[in-house]
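I would like you to help me understand the sequence and structure tokens below and explain how sequence relates to structure.
___
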Amino acid sequence: MAGMNEVQVVVAHDERATLRVGDVFLKVDADQSRIDVELAAMALAPVPTPDVLWRNPPVLALAAVRGTALGRLGEPSPVSSSAWAAAGAAVRLLHDAPLPSWPGRSLTEDAVGRLDAECDWLMRNNVLPADLVKRNRRIAQRAFRSWAPVFAHGDLQLTHVFVEGDVVTGIIDWSEAGKGDPLYDLAVLTLGHEEHLDDVVAGYGADIDLDVVRAWWSWRSLCAARWLTEHGFDPAAPGAEFDVLRSAK
């Protein structure tokens, strides 16, 4: 447990910051609409979420959830295959819940246009080889198909799902939740950890088009690169987004 007198910076950039003091997380966000969505989504979600302690704009205080995160990009997961399957089952429970009343914010309205713009930026600035960008651009195209919206988390990174043993104890960071593509959630959850995709799908308990999941891996990695770079993160770190693009088939 973090020391009560110690303030830890969990994440901080020019859009928002999250601090930890003991077992309390303080989320500071100038855009209160994101906090509104987070609170509304946690109230509706049929899965474990953090307890809300108080809200005093621009700060939201949340209690820490028990357990261990599924893992981090570039590192072996510290939890079992059964824990990943439990995460898949929790996601299915969320996706089967009634739709929220607001639209999702995880994807832009023009996902194709955003993809084109980000690929152009990557090649124009020599961030990645043009052939690698173009190959992943073709793979990402598979994600653009008809789909039925579900109650989606919208930013279901593996660091946002906590487990104890094979039980999900909490899912955090709901500010992108809304109506969304179920396979996008599954893709974000398994990004960089393809070895656990089968576990998640087994827990999810439905037929999944794995080509679409892989397409969203490419889309997410291409479209996140500029934002990550501009906000102090490193998509070129081992096992991170650029490695995902290199391994795409």
